[in-house]
Specification:
With 155 residues, the protein is mainly alpha-helical. 74% of the residues lie in helices and 0% in strands. Helix 2 packs antiparallel against helix 3 (47-77), helix 2 (37-43) packs antiparallel against helix 5 (127-148) and helix 4 runs antiparallel to helix 5 (127-148).
Length: 155
């Protein structure tokens, strides 16, 4: 029985990492950032219709991001800072300014990041769709980040 354990154990060392890696790969879709179901639907349409469709998706995504940002900024600006440990009006103003500045910086980051991520596709027919997908997916990720910001210090 001892010999079987010794033989099985080394075999498991080789099998487990492969299986674990395969399981992780299934959870992380290839180029998830550079593909988007809505953009793929638009790409299947004739050229002009495809461009208009993608533009509408980006506009809708941008508007959703702007709405999330405005909602959170309003929440910050109306926060009851007296509930914060030694909270002050200045602290709330600083939080608001930092949040607004971070959004401006993030917008620039999104543009340069997506251009970098999509660079291998730059001279292809699908470059526009790749950029559109990246912009939309980055917006969705940013909305999730914005939603994580809390003015409630009791969490």
């Amino acid at each position: 029985m001892q010999k079987r354990k010794l033989i099985i154990f080394p075999v498991l060392l080789f099998i487990l990492p492969i299986s674990y890696g395969e399981a992780l790969a299934k959870d992380i879709p290839h180029n998830d950032l550079l593909s988007n179901h809505g953009v793929e639907k638009c790409a299947a349409k004739p050229d002009e219709e495809s461009y208009n469709c993608s533009d509408k998706l980006i506009q809708k995504s941008d508007n959703h991001l702007k709405d999330s940002f405005r909602k959170k900024l309003k929440e910050i600006e109306s926060a009851n800072y007296s509930q914060w440990w030694m909270g002050s009006e200045e602290q709330r103003k600083t939080m608001s300014a930092n949040f607004a500045n971070s959004q401006k910086a993030w917008e620039q980051y999104k543009l340069t990041y997506c251009k970098s991520a999509a660079a291998p596709y730059e001279n292809t027919h699908g470059y526009g769709d790749t950029l559109s997908s990246c912009f939309i997916n980055m917006n969705q990720k940013r909305i999730a980040e914005i939603d994580m910001i809390s003015v409630d210090s009791s969490r």
